[in-house]
Amino acid sequence: MRISLGRDFARALDPCILARDCGIVPDATQSQLLTTTARKTLVCCCRQWGKSTITAIVALHEALYGAPAMVVVISPSQPQSTELFKKIHGFWEKLPGAPAAEQESLTRMELANGSRIISLPGSEKTVRGYSAATLVIMDEAARVPDELLASVRPMLATTSGRFIALSTPAGKRGWYYEQWERGEDWARFSVKGVDCARIAPAFLAEELQALGPLLYSQEYEIQFVDQNTSAFSTVLIEMALRDDFRPFI
Ligand SMILES: Nc1ncnc2c1ncn2[C@@H]1O[C@H](COP(=O)(O)OP(=O)(O)OP(=O)(O)O)[C@@H](O)[C@H]1O
Ligand SMILES: [Mg+2]
């Protein structure tokens, strides 16, 4: 199907217009995430805020207008990466005027404009085979082990490509927690359940009942909570490691 050059130009300039053409009217924070030009982005938002949906649009925008782009989608497991790939594929499929696919499978596609979108499992060995990505999207990033992150970073070395890591918190540990708390040069996006107009207060109340306060605070209040398996809380451990720490005796 043909679309007007003007519309295509508008989509290229503004990913929010692409989102609308894909049937998603972004809210204010989603619009900021769609339009940020930051090279490194951390998205730490509650469940169901739209992390996967919005980054799927970012991925599609890169593939359509950054050609020949190499978009890599990665997460702790292939099924999770495939879910995000399916979202990108779903938007592409329904978008009037999108370039045709030259190759397509359940996990990857190559477009007629030369752009590729590839979803990968969270395994270091597989990741090492890929390079020169222009955009890497890491879903469920708080659950991605540090070693996997280390093998993903070089993919962006030669392209100055963008890296977007999205997650809800998963404990006070690992690279995602460290970077969220102390990392430099990141654009950060964070939205709690109560601040998301698409999530009804009644649903949040049900979730609080079902999950209990600790898990609820992690999933909907985006709190990094200590794992119940820890013998000591992170605050205590951090205090104990401080030079000026004096035990309470
Ligand atoms: N701006 C929007 N307008 C309409 N629907 C939206 C919008 N943003 C997100 N959604 C819808 O909200 C639902 C949740 O989106 P999505 O799966 O992307 O969230 P998520 O943050 O990745 O969730 P999870 O933490 O469970 O992975 C989807 O049905 C999606 O279509
Ligand atoms: Mg998601």
Helix content: 40-55%
Spatial ordering of strands, largest sheet: 3-4-5-2-6-7-1-8
| Total number of beta strands | 8
Low-confidence spans: none
Give the terminus-to-terminus CA distance. 76 Å
Judged by helices, strands and strand pairing, the structural class is alpha/beta
What is the highest CATH level, the class?
A: Alpha Beta
Please tally the helical runs, counting DSSP H or I stretches of 4 or more residues.
10
* CATH fold call: Rossmann fold
Bound molecules: adenosine-5'-triphosphate, magnesium ion
CATH level-four homologous superfamily name: P-loop containing nucleotide triphosphate hydrolases
Query: What kind of oligomer do you see?
Result: single chain
The coarse silhouette is: globular
What share of the residues does DSSP label as strand, in percent?
Answer: 5-15%
Second-tier CATH architecture: 3-Layer(aba) Sandwich
Mean pLDDT: 91
Q: How many structural units, i.e. domains?
A: 1
What's the order of the H and E elements? HHHEHEHEEEHEHEHEHH
Q: From the alpha-carbon coordinates, what is the Rg to the nearest angstrom?
A: 20 Å
Can you describe this structure?
The chain has 249 residues and is an alpha/beta fold. Helix content is 41%, strand content 14%. It has helices at residues 5-13, 15-21, 28-35, 51-65, 78-94, 124-127, 146-152, 174-182, 201-219, 234-241; strands at residues 40-44, 70-74, 101-104, 108-111, 116-120, 135-138, 162-167, 187-189. Strands 3-4-5-2-6-7-1-8 form an 8-stranded mixed sheet, with helices on both faces. Helix 1 (5-13) packs across helix 2 (15-21). Adenosine-5'-triphosphate is lined by residues 24-27, 30, 45, 47-53, 168, 198.
